[in-house]
Amino acid sequence: MNQKLMIEEINRLKKEKDAIILAHNYQIPEVQEVADVVGDSLALSKAAAEVDNNLIVFCGVHFMAESAKILSPNKKVLLPAIDAGCPMADMVTADDLRKYKAANPDVKIICYVNSSAEVKAECDICCTSSNALKIVQNIDAEKILFVPDQNLGSYIKNKVKDKDIELWAGFCITHHRVKSEEVQKVKEAHPDVEILAHPECNEEVINHADFIGSTSQIIDYASKSDKDKFIIGTEMGVLHKLEKDNPDKKFYLLSTGLICANMKKTKLQDVYQALKHEKHEIHVDENIRIKALKSLDRMLELS
Ligand code: 13P
Ligand code: SF4
User: Fold this and answer.
1) Total structural domains within the chain
2) Cα–ligand 1 centroid distance for 215 (angstroms)
3) Full-prediction pTM beyond 0.90?
4) Are residues 159 and 182 in the same domain?
5) Whether residue 11 is found in the same domain as residue 40
6) Hey, what long-range contacts does 154-157 have (CB within 8 A, 24 or more apart)?
7) pLDDT digits (tens, 9 = 90+) for 209-232
8) Which of 92, 153, 167, 174 is least enclosed, having the fewest CB within 10 Å?
């Protein structure tokens, strides 16, 4: 089937099955183009919780589709590429947290949404990159363990001085590998151009950034700015919307390594197959779901 026909079929199946397609900002352009909502983790969680459709096709990685299922248990949630995971989410387990809690009963645990349902179930509250600061500032706790992203955690810790924040040693393999030498090089090539970076980048990169935010916050910032050139310090998928919405502006990727292989696993063909055969359905154990939902609900209340 050619691409034009496939897009027509996707749109027909969407109507026939009362489905909605949600896609993360890192998805390939063709997938973003067939999606009904494209956004960052927070926007997609909110959309999953609010939409009326009975079928959600989640183009992203596993923890995102899982969060949609936790928030909307009566809807059928599909992940088109079932092997699309997030290596950072696998860097902390529920067992790790149970052991930690037994040894540290007075510490509240905040988990980045890039985590499994089992991990969310062991935490007090979730956060995303766009609301992490607000969540940490507002949580009623002196001592906090932040899991699993040490980079987002350390960015927040540097801003919230009145709380004792311990960091888990996880990281995003895509953002963490950007080196300060790459930043120097790109700054020399494009002097006076602002660097917009994701807080999953390491501290050396964050220290050079002019703006730090989630994927959608980066897109909004560049779109509203009266400047016409930007260095982008997050996964290359955001370039699609940035360039589409801002044809007169120029965007330079901070590093050629800013590609998440897992986010690139979902092809248009997978979206079509997902809709046609209603696969791959995401399931979450009900006991875990109820506990994980508390962490997500607390986050949505505070966001
Ligand atoms: P946001 O879209 O929330 O900024 O998250 C980035 C990310 O790495 C998702 O996996
Ligand atoms: Fe996970 Fe990083 Fe890929 Fe996001 S970009 S899905 S945090 S590996």
Assistant:
1) 3
2) 6
3) yes
4) no
5) yes
6) 154/203, 155/199, 155/203, 155/206, 155/212, 156/132, 156/199
7) 999 999 999 999 999 999 999 999
8) 167
3-state secondary structure 266-300: CCHHHHHHHHHHCCCECCCCHHHHHHHHHHHHHHH
Residues 72 and 23 grouped into a single domain: yes
CATH code at position 72: 3.40.50.10800
* Residue 174 alpha carbon to ligand 2 centre in Å: 6
Give the model confidence (pLDDT) of 61-105 as tens digits. Answer: 999 999 999 999 999 999 999 999 999 999 999 999 999 999 999
In a domain, 127, yes or no: yes
Question: Are 143 and 107 a contacting pair, CB within 8 Å?
Answer: yes
> Relative to the CA of 114, which ligand 1 atom is closest?
10
Q: Which domain holds residue 103?
A: 89-171+288-302
At 236, the amino acid letter reads: M
Instruction: State the Cα–Cα distance between residues 9 and 185, nearest whole angstrom.
Output: 45
CA of 149 to the centre of ligand 2 (A): 11
Ligand 2 binding site (Cβ under 6 Å of any ligand atom): 61, 86-88, 114, 172-174, 200, 235, 260, 262-263
Residue 258 lies in a domain: no
